[in-house]
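Give me the fold.
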Amino acid sequence: MKKISGFTLLELMITMTLVSLVMAIGIPSMRDFIKNDRLVTQINTMVGHLAYARSEAVTRHQTVIICASSNQTSCSSSNWAEGWILFVDTDNNADFSAGEDMLRQHVALSGGTTFTSSVGSVVTYDERGFAPNSIGTFSLCDDRGTAHMKSISISATGRVRQGGSTSC
C-alpha cells in the first residue's frame, strides 16, 4: 500500500489562521512606516535644499532664492507642496529670469501631504548666508494630523533646524 502524504484540514486551518493574524498586525504597521518615511524624506529634502541655497549664496557672494513653484520654471505658486525652485537672483527681482542660474528644481510632493509656511512663498539668502526677511517655519503634515507632523524653522542668520511649529 502506498503512503499518501499531505496536509490535513486541521493543519491547513491553523496555518491560515496564523497567516491572517500576521497580516492583520503587519499591514497597518507597514502603512504607518511608509507614511513616516515619506514625511522624513520630504522634510529632509527641503532642509537639504535650504542648506544648499545658503551655501551657494555665500560661495557665489550673491542672493540665492528658493521659492514655491508649480511649474518648476518660475515663482508661480504660494503652495510649497506643488514644488519649488532654487536659483541665483542676479537681478534682485525675487523671480527666476532668463540668464539666471537655476540651481535645483523639485516637483510636487507625493502622498497627499500638505506643506505650509509662515515664511510666505519665497526664502531669500543674501551674500552672507543670512535670511533676515525669511524668518519662520515650514510644516509638513499628512492625513494623520499634527501627531506625526514634521517641521523646520529658519532663523535670521539663515540657520535651518528641525522643529519649531506646532500646527499644520
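DSSP finds one helix and eight strands in the chain.
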